[in-house]
C-alpha cells in the first residue's frame, strides 16, 4: 500500500486523484464536493484503487497496487493540489494507540468486575454468617425435635 498526504486546504475539496501520465484511469474521484471527505477512522471498504480520507486537517490517499515510482496527482475544482508520498507511520501509530487504549480499558473493566465479585462474595458470606445463629441451630440439632419445636414457637411469638 502506498500512502500520500496533503495539508493543502484545497485538498479537502479534492475531486480527483490520478497517476501522472495516465489519463485513462482515475485512481479516485468524487462527484459531490458538498459532502465532506470521509474520516480516516474507521476506514470503510473502497470501490476504487485508492481511498481518500481526512484526519486532523490533512488529506490522505491510500492506494493499492500502484506501479513503482508512480507520481500521484490530485485536483480540486480543476486545479492541481500538492500531494506527496508519506509514511504509513502516522496511520499505523494512531491505529496502534487505539488498540492499546482499548486493551487497557478492557483490563481495567475486567479487574473492577473481579473486585466487585469478590466483594459481593465476601458480603454474602458475612450476611450468611449473621443470619444463621450457630448456637441455636446446634442446640436444636443436639436436643432433638422437641427443643427445635420450642425454638420455633418462641420465634413465632
Ordered list of secondary-structure elements with their pairings:
Blueprint: E1 2-6, E2 16-19, E3 26-29, E4 50-55, E5 58-63, E6 72-76, E7 79-81, E8 84-86, H1 89-131, H2 134-156
Antiparallel strand pairs: 1-5, 1-8, 2-3, 2-6, 4-5, 6-7
Mean pLDDT: 75
Structural class category: alpha+beta
Strand content: 15-25%
Shape type: elongated
The strand count comes to 8
Q: Helicity level, as a percent range?
A: 40-55%
Biggest sheet: strands, sense, closure?
Answer: 4 strands, antiparallel
Roughly how many Å is the radius of gyration?
Answer: 35 Å
| Multimeric state | single chain
Strand order of the largest sheet: 4-5-1-8
Number of helices: 2
Total domains:
2
Distance between the termini: 84 Å
H-E string: EEEEEEEEHH
Low-confidence stretches: none
Main attributes of the structure:
four-stranded antiparallel β-sheet, 157 residues, 2 helices, single chain, alpha+beta
Describe the structure.
It is a single chain. With 157 residues, this protein is an alpha+beta fold. 42% of the residues lie in helices and 23% in strands. The protein starts with a strand and ends with a helix. It has helices at residues 89-131, 134-156; strands spanning 2-6, 16-19, 26-29, 50-55, 58-63, 72-76, 79-81, 84-86. The chain has 2 domains: 2-86; 107-156. The strands form 2 sheets. Strands 4-5-1-8 form a 4-stranded antiparallel sheet, with no helix packed on it. It has a 4-stranded antiparallel sheet with strand order 3-2-6-7, with no helix packed on it. The protein has 2 helices and 8 strands, in the order E-E-E-E-E-E-E-E-H-H.
Amino acid at each position: 500500500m502506498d500512502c500520500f498526504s496533503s495539508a493543502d486546504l484545497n485538498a479537502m475539496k479534492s475531486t480527483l486523484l490520478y497517476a501522472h501520465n495516465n489519463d485513462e484511469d482515475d485512481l479516485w474521484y468524487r462527484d459531490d464536493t458538498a459532502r465532506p471527505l470521509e474520516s480516516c477512522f474507521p476506514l470503510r471498504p473502497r470501490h476504487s484503487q485508492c481511498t481518500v480520507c481526512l484526519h486532523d486537517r490533512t488529506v490522505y490517499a491510500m492506494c493499492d497496487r500502484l506501479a513503482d515510482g508512480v507520481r500521484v496527482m490530485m485536483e480540486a475544482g480543476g486545479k492541481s493540489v500538492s500531494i506527496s508520498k508519506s509514511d504509513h507511520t502516522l496511520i499505523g501509530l494512531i491505529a496502534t494507540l487505539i488498540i492499546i487504549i482499548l486493551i487497557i480499558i478492557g483490563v481495567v473493566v475486567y479487574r473492577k468486575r473481579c473486585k466487585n465479585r469478590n466483594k459481593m462474595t465476601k458480603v454474602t458470606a458475612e450476611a450468611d454468617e449473621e443470619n444463621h445463629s450457630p448456637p441455636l441451630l446446634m442446640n436444636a440439632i443436639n436436643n432433638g425435635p422437641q427443643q427445635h419445636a420450642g425454638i420455633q414457637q418462641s420465634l413465632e411469638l
